[in-house]
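## retry 2 of 3
previous attempt timed out at serialization; input unchanged, resubmitting
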Amino acid sequence: MDALRAAYLRDTLAYCDEIEAEVLRVLEIKFEWSRESAGPVMKRYLERGLRVRISGKLKNICRDANDDMVVECALVAHAQIIVSGDKDLLSLGKYSDIIVLSPAA
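## retry succeeded, writing output
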C-alpha cells in the first residue's frame, strides 16, 4: 500500500474498467475485503486517475493472457512505468518504452 500511496500523491494512475474490476476481485478474494470496503477505497485512489478505454486487441504479450490488459492500458495512457507485484507482468521487464517494476523498486 505504501507504493500505491506514493504513486497516488505524485503520479497519475492510469486504469481501465477491466483493471478496476480485476483489482476489486483480488481485494475481495485474496485479501478478503468486502465489496463495501473495497469500493470506496478504489474510488478514492482512482478519482485523480486517468481512465482509458482498451480494445482488448493486444494479445500474447504476457505469460498470463489476463495481464495483457495492463500492458494495453499503459500503452493507451502513454505510461512510462507499470508497477505490479504480478510475476507474469514483472517477467516482461519492459514492453515498448514501458518499464515494468515491482512496488519495492
